[in-house]
Amino acid sequence: MQHRRVGESGLVVSALGLGTMTWGGDVDFAAARALVRSFVEAGGSLVDTAPAYGSGMAEKMVGKMLATDVRREDLVIATKAGFSVRDGGRVVDTSRGALLDDLAGSLRRLRTDHIDLWQVHAWGDAPLEETLSALDQAVHSGMARHVGICNFIGWQTARAATWQQAFPGRTRLASGQVEYSLLARRAEIEVLPALRAHGMGLFPWAPVGRGVLTGKYRTGLPRGSRGASDHFAWFVAPYLEAKSRAITDAVCRAADGLELTPEQVALLWVRDAPVVTAPLLGARTPEQLAPYLALDEVSLPTPIVEALDDVSGGRNHLRG
């Protein structure tokens, strides 16, 4: 698998990342182990997780694999802090103490002495300088090698990056992580330009439109899919309206002409878009992961990219 530098930082990761949001819930340890084995055998290195995923179980699974299945040096571990689910509600706490407590917990669950990329999971109410000082402390202490942000909108990204670049000694932000796909292109308006301006890489989550761009929802809700589940139906539902169906149909037509699958076309469009470092894959089985791992030497023809741009919202001005 190809590897890419994360923005202007010194961090290098595989061109695809393995996401773990469903680990500890829909994905048990046996399935997670099979996913990591397939991913690493294909040359993948980036595994993205968070304390909030499976209430810590996703990190524990990765930690167990580091002890039994994969060498620490073979993985680039990205995790997060500042977000949790308590009593069924979402809690964002980006205070210095909360972030550093999360980091300590992540290191313990992951059974490692450092995080390769430590990210603020969401914008919070704590003063930004307090939040970012926790990132500085994590790097200066050796507990984290690089830092980034997740789910910040454009002005938040620019403000955080500018603050870190303002004085020597502060740790520059290496990356941002937001949703980005043919069904979710709003990041092109402000987030991606901000990332580019500040030399940061992008890790898109849900690059296949929360599974919708696979085409499996064109005739209903397949049994066993996220859209048919009690706990993930809300996640898929926004992309089951008429506009999304038209985009999915276009992806399926392109796939037929290129002898690819719809999910491969959707991923390639994201993987090779400007600013993108590595899309994060939410595959739950090795069978779902395999089509993406076969794309290392494949790219979309420019006319197909432009046609998909047109049908999904217009020209991507970042392409130059």
TrEMBL record:
What Gene3D superfamilies does the record tag this protein with?
NADP-dependent oxidoreductase domain
| Limits of the NADP-dependent oxidoreductase domain | 16-310
**What highest taxon heads this organism's lineage?**
Bacteria
Alphabetical list of Pfam families matching this protein:
Aldo_ket_red
* Record-linked PANTHER family: NADH-SPECIFIC METHYLGLYOXAL REDUCTASE-RELATED (PTHR43364), OXIDOREDUCTASE (PTHR43364:SF18)
Q: Mind telling me what this protein is named?
A: Aldo/keto reductase
